[in-house]
Amino acid sequence: MKRKAWCGSAEHPVSRRGFLGAAAAGTAFAADMTVLDGLKQQALAAELKRQQKRVILLWLAGGASQLETWDPKPGAETGGPFRAIQTTVPGLEISELLPKQSQRMRQTAVIRSLNTKIADHGGGYRLMETGRLPEPGVAFPHLGAIIARELGRIDSHVPDHVSMYTSTEGRRKGTAGFLGARYNPMFLTENMMPENIRRLESISQVDHQDRAALRDFFAEKFSRSVDSAAVASHGSAYERVRGLMASDRLFDISEEPQAMREKYGPTQFGEQCLIARRLVEAGVPFVKVARAWWDSHGQNFETHRELCADLDHCMSALMDDLGDRGLLENTLVITLGEFGRTPRINGSLGRDHFASAWSCSLTGCGIKGGAVYGKTDEKGATVVDGEIGAADLFATIFTALGIDYEKEYMLGSRPIPISDFGSSPVEDVLA
Amino acid sequence: MNDTLKITRASQWNQSDILFCIARPSGSDRIYVGSSDFGVYEFDSSAEKPERVRLEGEQHQSYVTGLALVGETLVSCSYDGQLIWWDTAERRSIRTVAAHDRWIRRVIATPDQTQIISVADDMQCKVWDGVSGELISLFTDHAETTPHHYPSMLYAVAASPDGRWLATGDKVGHVAIWDAGTFEKVGELETPVMYTWDPKQRRHSIGGIRSLAFSADGSQLAVGGIGKIGNIDHLGGPSRLEVFEWSSGTRRFEIEDDKKKGLIEQIVWHPSGDWLLCAGGDHKGFLNICDMQSGELIAQEAGDGHIHGLVVDAELQNVFTAGHNRIERWTLGTS
User: Fold this and answer.
1) Residue A12, Cα to own-chain centre: how many angstroms?
2) Complex ipTM, two decimals?
3) Which of A100, A173, B44, B88 has the smallest number of Cβ neighbours within 10 A?
4) What is the 3-state secondary structure (H, E, C) of chain A?
């Protein structure tokens, strides 16, 4: 199987020209830690941002079983009780626990050859959220923060990094790391409406508008007399806060027609997927919906019968809805957890942590639907073809979104590529 | 705990697969087991080094989860939704019936051995002619989804020794009792502690009623499963037995055991009604004897692996168990 070491997207040549043109013109750039990135940013990102690409990450917290989802091994000693079913893609079979997904595989690519080696929840999470191993003294940004940085708009009136994780087990907030607080997630934990986003009831709408107008008046007057980036940033922050306050309705699914709510169903995961669609439709570039808790050390098959039904229904509803609205071609849906589960079935009919040969799926934006990359052996114990790690997956995700996966951020004088050194995208799953 | 009764492991035969069910013709050394390799096997328990023999012919396509004997005919059920009739003399399958839309959890024979009864995750209980395999009736009192909108499961079925009653039990702890002649519902019980729904930490469920057994006179119904589980990643909850005077809905006993945790997978009443034997486990197994006068656990033995099924000889001296990677023989006696 081929993997390419360069970005072959249609945008790339144009972007390179834009980049070179911008550099030749000697454009002045803001002196911040991403100054080199800034060279590209001006020329490249403007084009990307126009395209309004977005990501929804369905995070299968705790580690879903690849054998009960994307890489079934019916009849194998390790295969469990469930059958494989034929999908709409000839020759591609997935678990019978995903019957609705089986009818939508023309839009989805499956990677069956992740070998990420780290099989503890914390370590696996850090790896699969950042695409690299941790290093002392460096706070690497999570995928959502990078996407927000690359695809978000400075002048956006909606949040650009939203993370929903309402179960408490394995709850991890995510961080923008060295990218700074601007790209930290809006983290929803206790309920699905952001806290403190609404106007205080003690302040009337008229008062609220009057205060904003007064603030604008003084801010404009002040900024005319003081030429300072800090002042501009302050003004931008206020604009953003006002935008976020106005976006609370995006989290309110009661605004959706009842028929649409029924399509997603009554489960929390379904309602969060519906919110995710509302958010990306409004221009939010990255939304993570974490569905806990797949850690099935006991009764793996019962657990997957329950959770796969939820995943199958909600993911299918989301794909259909995005497709119907013309959003799927610009929205990448990633289904991923921190690792998979052991082929060995333990004494409690469970499967334990396993990072040596597991699967994920990519749907929509930039993805070759129906593609299958990688292969595991007959028991699902090892990768026998197309082995990739977390960094390669990140390179694939970035490339699918039209982001140069070799792009570098500067942390002081240290260049840090957005996907780790030595990584390359999986060409076979890219459109 | 008194020591009147004692359970002792007599033999252990290690296997490479997971054995979910066991059946034994009365007075025979042969036992039959259903396997995770989709096969049904005959096993000679009298042999010094017994080798099991796979029954031939049409095979299941998934785990074999239940076995029932009707004379010389063995009926197996599977996650594949099929029932297969086997001629034990010929060691061959003789009939395959597409019985349920989803996974069949248990199959039993009526005491007169004329009918076969199956329960499955389509939440249906179906009654079959034991000889012809014709469907006689189907009924349910079990919701397809849990209160939290996920698929439910119908794990357990039992027939009273006199053949008058049937009982079915599901994941959320609901039991329905049926007239075995008319298939009309005649009673129901609730055992909600058997079902653990974790809405906060892990947001999924575990547990369920895994076993049912009527007392010899049919007046009492024992319900087996697991108590409330804290960390539902594991089966780390107390084994739980509830015993009812089912016609009045009176709960006689709740017996939870934290020492040997896990699911009670099967229950056998002593004909006198004085005690009952139950077996199951988490990653390890257990055999418990509970006194039905005091409602106390009076004998217990640990198994090396989870026990999925058991069969007891007519004299109540030998117990054969099938479980994770092993078949075992145990003896019951007084010390």
Assistant:
1) 22
2) 0.96
3) A173
4) CCCCCCCCCCHHHHHHHHHHHHHHCCCCCCCCCCHHHHHHHHHHHHHHHHHCCEEEEEEEECCCCCCCCCCCCCCCCCCCCCCEEECCCCCCEEECCCHHHHCCHHHEEEEEEECCCCCCHHHHHHHHHHCCCCECCECCCCHHHHHHHHHCCCCCCCCCCEEECCCCCCCCCCCCHHHCHHHCCEEECCCCCCCCCCCCCCCCHHHHHHHHHHHHHHHHHHHHHCCCHHHHHHHHHHHHHHHHHHCHHHHCHHHCCHHHHHHHCCCHHHHHHHHHHHHHHCCCCEEEEEEECCCCCCCHHHHHHHHHHHHHHHHHHHHHHHHHCCCHHHEEEEEECCCEECCCCCCCCCCCEECCCEEEEEEECCECCCCEECEECCCCCCEEECCECHHHHHHHHHHHCCCCCCCEEEECCEEEECCCCCCCCCHHHEC
CATH superfamily of A49-193+258-429: Alkaline Phosphatase, subunit A (3.40.720.10)
Closest CA to A141 of A181, A97, A192: A181
Domains, chain B: 16-140 (2.130.10.10), 141-303 (2.130.10.10)
B interface test, pick of A67, A349, A352 with most B CB neighbours within 10 Å? A349
Distance (Å) from the alpha carbon of A19 to chain B's nearest alpha carbon: 47
% pLDDT > 90, chain B: 96
Is residue A66 within 8 Å of residue A380, measured between CB atoms? yes
* Per-residue tokens: A341: 């589960």
Please write the tens of the pLDDT for every residue from A392-413.
999 999 999 999 999 999 999 9
Q: What are the sequence ranges of the domains in chain A?
A: 49-193+258-429, 198-246
Residue with tokens 């709740």: B254
CB-nearest partner of A302 from B18, B148, B153 = B153
Please tell me if residue B54 touches chain A, with a CB cutoff of 8 Å: no
Specify the pLDDT at position A235: 61
Q: Which of the four pLDDT bands, split at 50, 70 and 90, describes residue A42?
A: low
CB contact under 8 A, A167 and B203: yes
Please report the pLDDT score of residue A8 as a whole number: 37
Contact A233/B at CB under 8 A: no
pLDDT in tens, A305-353: 999 999 999 999 999 999 999 999 999 999 999 999 999 999 999 999 9
d(C-alpha B159, C-alpha B179), whole Å:
10
C-beta of residue B22 within 8 angstroms of C-beta of residue B321: yes
In this predicted structure, what is the pLDDT of residue A367?
98
- Express each pLDDT in B230-277 by its tens digit: 999 999 999 999 999 999 999 999 999 999 999 999 999 999 999 999
